[in-house]
Specification:
The complex is a heterodimer of chains A (54) and B (261). Chain A has 54 residues and is mainly α. Chain A has one helix spanning 3-32. Chain A is rod-shaped. Helix content of chain B is 73%, strand content 0%. Chain B has helices at residues 18-21, 30-53, 64-94, 97-129, 137-155, 162-189, 209-259. In chain B, helix 2 (30-53) packs antiparallel against helix 7 (209-259). The longest helix of chain B has 51 residues, at 209-259. Classes of the chains: A mainly alpha (54), B mainly alpha (261).
Chain lengths: 54, 261
């Protein structure tokens, strides 16, 4: 009865947030290549030269 | 009036070589990884809880499942606006770009969450009220909040120095706070198609039991996602500022080198 509206709402929310998160992480990776690790205060020492986002 | 982003002196030019600086983990860190894992586990619990296990409401029937997603999204839209307002105030007071970066990051999330609030609200309105949209006080004030957020973000693209851009947008950022209050109170101040607040920390809360539990789980999970997004978005904005600063320093060094014999 109301299932299409409910599923649409939940799918849109999680879908949009997932896409926005992915776009942000990819943009961050792209920009990080141009900035020294010393200027990225959040970088752990073992992360330099590898590692993933999350 | 000077602005301050980082304490260190500008770095050397020639930043296009990734190998020089390491591939790096982008905007990720231990904290964001832990937050990301917690959020994914939370989603794995929240989805079956909200969509399958929650009982139906006496009045709303299965539409109560819209409540679990729409209300946390709306609350986080308001929180984003309040963070933007606080960051804007701190920027105007301290003139540190850190605060402007925080305000801008929260405003971006605010725009995403406000848009999701409007969409999920419309999808709830169709079966509940028989219409996707009505020029009702709550809906209209939320749409105005969305326009103000878009105006804030558009103003950041206007030409000018980093300081003038930040100052202009901070003034708009401050306006978000009274707008959030208007949206919050609109159902009490005016006759509205929208139902009054279901969750009230200072008064009667209209739901209980399993439904309240589902809502609290939903709010916690959505808050984790919001925090994860905010940290990543803040770091992206920080990197953009750093690149602008380093590019400028490189251009100045190149100009000086040209002038030397």
């Amino acid at each position: 009865m109301n299932t299409p509206y409910i599923l649409a709402s939940w799918s849109i929310v999680f879908g949009v947030l997932a896409l926005y998160g992915l776009a942000t992480v990819l943009r961050g990776r792209q920009l990080a290549r141009r900035v020294p690790a010393s200027e990225r205060r959040w970088v752990d020492s073992q992360d330099v030269g590898g590692g993933g986002d999350g | 009036m000077t602005t301050q982003l980082a304490s260190g002196a500008p770095g050397s030019p020639g930043l296009a070589n990734p190998a020089e600086h390491g591939g790096g983990p982008g905007t990720g860190s231990r904290t964001t990884r832990a937050l990301g894992v917690a959020a994914l586990l939370g989603v794995a619990v929240f989805v079956p809880l909200g969509l399958v296990l929650s009982p139906e409401d006496v009045m709303q029937n299965d539409l109560v499942r819209m409540f679990y997603i729409h209300v946390p999204v709306a609350i986080l839209a308001f929180v984003s606006c309040l963070v933007t307002g606080a960051g804007s105030f701190m920027y105007l007071w301290r003139r540190q770009l850190w605060w402007d970066t925080a305000a801008c990051s929260a405003a971006q999330l605010g725009a995403v969450y406000t848009a999701l609030t409007l969409v999920t609200g419309s999808l709830w309105g169709r079966p509940a009220w028989g219409t996707y949209w009505d020029w009702d006080a709550r809906l209209t004030s939320t749409a105005m909040l969305m326009l103000l957020l878009l105006g804030y973000l558009a103003l950041r693209k206007a030409p000018g120095t980093a300081d003038s851009q930040a100052k202009r947008s901070a003034i708009v950022g401050l306006l978000l706070v009274p707008n959030v209050m208007i949206v919050r109170q609109s159902v009490d101040w005016w006759r509205s198609l929208h139902q009054p607040a279901t969750i009230n920390l200072l008064g009667n809360t209209r739901i209980g039991g399993t439904m309240l539990f589902c809502f609290v789980v939903g709010l916690a999970v959505m808050s984790l996602i919001w925090l994860w997004l905010l940290i990543h978005r803040f770091r992206v904005s920080w990197l953009e500022h750093q690149i602008d600063r380093l590019d400028l320093a490189g251009a100045l060094l190149a100009r000086r080198a040209e002038g030397q014999p």
